[in-house]
Design goal:
Blueprint (H helix, E strand, L loop, with lengths): L8 H7 L1 H5 L4 E5 L8 E6 L2 E6 L5 H17 L4 E6 L4 H4 L4 H4 L13 E5 L2 E5 L8 E3 L19
Parallel strand pairs: 3-4
Antiparallel strand pairs: 1-2, 2-3, 5-6, 6-7
C-alpha cells in the first residue's frame, strides 16, 4: 500500500461484523497492520476516531481524510475525530495539544459524549477529549483496579 492508498474499510468492517452481532457498537474498525502503519480507526457507534501514527504534510493529511470520508460514511460513520499520534507526541502534548487532538470533528456533527456498548454493557466516551476515554455507566469501579466510578471521575 502506498502512503495515501485508502485502506479497505469494507473488508475490515466485514471481519468485525460478529462484534456488531454480539451487541458491540464500539471496536477498532481498522488496525495499523491493515494500513501499513499509517492509522487506526476506532468506531464508537456513528462516530469514528482516526489516529494517525505518521506525521504527514498538511496536503497528505487532507488527502488521507478525503479518501477515507466516503468509505466511512458508507459504513454509517457520521462524525470523524482526528488524533495525531506521532512518535514524539508525548513531548509535544503540553505545547501542541489542540494540533494533536482537535476538539472539533473533521466532519460531521460534534459529539461531546456518546454511549456505546460492548457485549451489551454501556460505556461513555468523549471523542473530543485529548485521549478518548471510556467509562462504564454501571455503578462502582469502571474496571478491576480502577478507583474511578462511572460519571464520578475519569478512568
Amino acid at each position: 500500500m502506498t502512503l495515501l492508498q485508502t485502506p479497505d474499510l469494507e473488508a475490515a468492517a466485514a471481519l468485525r461484523e460478529p462484534l456488531m452481532a454480539e451487541g458491540s457498537t464500539f471496536y477498532r474498525l481498522l488496525h495499523t497492520t491493515e494500513s501499513a502503519g499509517l492509522c487506526s480507526l476506532d468506531r464508537l457507534g456513528t462516530v469514528g476516531v482516526l489516529s494517525l501514527y505518521r506525521e504527514l504534510a498538511p496536503a497528505q493529511e487532507a488527502a488521507v481524510l478525503a479518501a477515507l470520508q466516503g468509505p466511512m460514511q458508507a459504513l454509517g460513520i457520521e462524525t470523524l475525530y482526528l488524533k495525531r499520534r506521532p512518535e514524539v507526541a508525548s513531548h509535544r502534548a503540553n505545547t501542541e495539544r489542540e494540533w494533536l487532538a482537535p476538539a472539533e470533528p473533521q466532519w460531521g456533527t460534534p459529539q461531546p459524549e456518546i454511549t456505546c456498548t460492548e457485549e451489551g454493557v454501556p460505556f461513555l466516551f468523549a471523542p473530543a477529549a485529548t485521549s478518548v476515554w471510556a467509562c462504564s455507566r454501571t455503578p462502582g469501579p469502571c474496571a478491576p483496579g480502577c478507583g474511578a466510578t462511572a460519571r464520578g471521575g475519569g478512568c
